[in-house]
Design a protein that fits this description.
By secondary structure, the chain is an alpha+beta fold. The protein has helices spanning 2-11, 15-18, 23-40, 50-58, 79-100, 139-148, 262-286; strands spanning 106-107, 116-122, 126-135, 160-169, 173-180, 191-202, 205-212, 225-226, 228-239, 242-255. The chain is 34% helix and 29% strand. It starts with a helix and ends with a helix.
Length: 290
């Protein structure tokens, strides 16, 4: 079985196979299952960390992948659980790398913006948009709204019709299904997303990252096109000298699929970031303690 699954992974090197939904995940899980079985049976030639190493090796950003979060124990999670955790950690490492680079960001022109939005073309991601704002609430409140209370987002964000947590993995990783709300005159149309949402912490900052994943079986939604989040990362950091306020930074790169001109996508995505922050501020203001 192990030999057959290795051949499957070798086949993924071909572009036409790599694009098949779920094939890469299937290969990773199959290899992990075989190797983990050998470890359990006591093979002297296999180290107990090999299943996780193979999982990391299969990712495009394996060399930059962070070690799993503190609540990750291989015996506690299934191979698919570990795959989702690794996806989240890889996305986090990628976001940290972007945030640490001295990138030349170009300002975007926004309508009624409550945030400054800029963009840059980055290798492997294409155009990435960065929204920045200072919000008059502490980090803990935003963390509650954007991660712990993620399923309640449609109650205050009219651009979403549904956010459902399909799976909770440990304390820091979620698998979610999000559906955008239909809107008359919307140039993009209705989309849905299947994503891994992952939480990371670095010193005083909280990082909320998201990236596209694959879940079986989850049929396409009628009237929706399944889009993909290449990378989303919201950074929540206490404002220096005023911990009651938060510096909010949001990196976003998406593949909306369908036949949409790049000029429209490049207008819609930054405006959607600004609108999200506007709706968030309105919600925070409406629910503020007297």
């Amino acid at each position: 079985m192990l030999r057959a699954t290795v051949k499957l992974c070798c086949g993924i090197a071909h572009d036409h196979l790599r694009r098949l939904p779920g094939l890469k995940i299937t290969a990773v899980v199959a290899i992990q299952k075989d190797v983990r079985g050998l470890v359990v049976r006591g093979s002297r030639h296999l180290h107990s960390k090999i299943p996780h190493y193979i999982q990391r090796l299969m990712g495009k950003e394996a060399a930059a992948c962070l070690e799993p979060a503190g609540d990750v124990s291989p015996s506690q999670f299934s191979s698919m659980d570990l795959f989702y955790i690794t996806q989240g950690e890889t996305a986090l490492q990628r976001a940290l790398s972007i945030l640490q680079q001295h990138t030349s960001w170009q300002a975007e022109t926004m309508l009624d913006a409550v945030a400054a939005v800029s963009s840059a073309a980055l290798p492997g991601l294409g155009k990435v948009f960065r929204a920045e704002a200072v919000l008059a609430v502490p980090v803990a409140r935003l963390h509650q709204e954007l991660f712990e209370g993620i399923e309640q987002m449609p109650q205050w964000n009219p651009t979403l019709s549904q956010v459902k947590v399909l799976q909770r993995i440990g304390t820091d990783t979620l698998v979610t299904h999000e559906v955008t709300a239909p809107s008359p005159g919307n140039l993009v149309g209705q989309r849905d997303f299947v994503s891994v949402q992952h939480r990371g912490r670095r010193e005083t900052a909280i990082y909320l990252v998201g990236t596209a994943t694959h879940v079986e079986p989850l049929p396409l939604q009628e009237g929706c096109i399944r889009a993909e989040s290449r990378l989303s990362c919201i950074v929540l950091q206490p404002l220096a000298g005023d911990p009651g306020r938060t510096r909010f930074t949001w990196l976003l790169s998406m593949d909306l699929k369908g036949w949409i001109p790049a000029s429209i996508i490049n207008r819609v995505l930054p405006q959607s970031q600004a609108d999200f922050i506007k709706h968030l501020c309105q919600h925070l203001s409406a629910t503020a303690c007297p």
